[in-house]
Amino acid sequence: MDKPISFCTAKTISQFFFAALISSMLVFSTTGLASQGNWQEAFDLQASYTGESATNIEGGQRRGSAYAGQLFVGGELDLNTLLDWDNTKVHIAMTNRHGKNLAEHYIGNSTSVQEIFGGQNTRLARFTISSTFLDGDLEVEGGRTVANISFLGSELCQYFQTNAACGNPTFVFRTSNFTWWPVSSWGGHAKYWLSPKTYFHTGIYEDNTSHQDLGDHGFDWATNEATGVVVPFTLGYQTTWNDDELPKRYEIGGWYDGADYTDPVFDDEGNYAAQSGNDYAVRNGRSGIFARFEQTVTRPNPLTKEGLTLFGAVLTGTSGELIEDYYIKAGFVLRGTFASRPDDTIGFVYTRQQYSNEALEDQRIKRALNGGVGTPASSQTMLELSYGYQLNEHVRIQPNLHYVINPDQFAERDRVNALDDAIVIGLRFDINLAALIFP
Fold this sequence. Notes:
Layout: H1 3-29, H2 36-42, E1 43-60, E2 64-78, H3 79-83, E3 89-99, H4 102-107, E4 121-133, E5 138-145, H5 171-174, E6 185-193, E7 198-207, E8 228-238, E9 248-267, H6 273-276, E10 280-298, E11 307-319, E12 324-335, E13 345-355, H7 357-369, E14 379-390, E15 395-405, E16 420-432, H8 433-437
């Protein structure tokens, strides 16, 4: 798919969803006859605050601490309750992200240990309409949204703080313009249930990296700076706590990104850009595939969610000039740590990012030009061990420990020396503000 077709597709899709959203807003404006009670019953308020602190106690560039936080306010408007529109909802979310990134300022690598960092400032993160068709077998949603809340995500991410694994495997963002929370653009997805437990899921999302700018607040809905679309797809099998004693999810899938990107090492003449001084070549089109699973293996009490869940994922590229060859994730979450602590958790996650020879050669050349020697490590491994303490119904506190082996060099590609392995102590807390304020 070349750039003109990609841009045209993004523009067409955005016009469709814009019309749908404007239509819904016009409908809302004509519902003056709806009682205040109906509105209150139809709207489900959602509000929360997440804070993540981290301190580098050894390794990296230097010792230091950083704090990042997110205030989330949003909700769902049930149009079935309000207007008798069956299975139709409007979703809206605003975020305010603030704080500092420990990886950037103290560790020196480009993969954060604070997954809540990114898309700083106040933003409209989601404004979509969803509905179901074909007796509920087909689920459709579209509007201003992001790909990573619908694809490659997991509810297990709430038990961790590392951005290497949460909210999604970092590989997909390093090898494509896969859109991420809370930087919204035009997009939509559709899930078709082939059976009660098997589904095919696909979507299309506008590539528009200009929205990542700190000055963007999510209300610029123009498509003039779009460069293409990213298309994820998944075939999956999933059960739940309600229909399976040991719930599970298995998925295989991939994505295609039709946007422009920068070659990791060569210029347009096929020479090393770091040596020639020319701009890195502009390429178009990247793709990748993945397989992942979540499997509960113990569940002592079938009436609760206590038990041990194992998870893992493998991602690799299939086309394009990429900075990473593959990515591996594995870990577990134990719900219910002691008889007296059924809502506490213990979590462990391991990730490995394996870099491409092209990306490593670029860094080797830059290191040599600045007086250094050798090639950076071929991979970065990150581990996290966490304990989730459920303080009460509304507040969760989660201390965590991180070990970063071979901190990567993508934040400073011309760095002349390797960094020592880093040890980080973190603390995450989550507050359900909606339930706390409106019990």
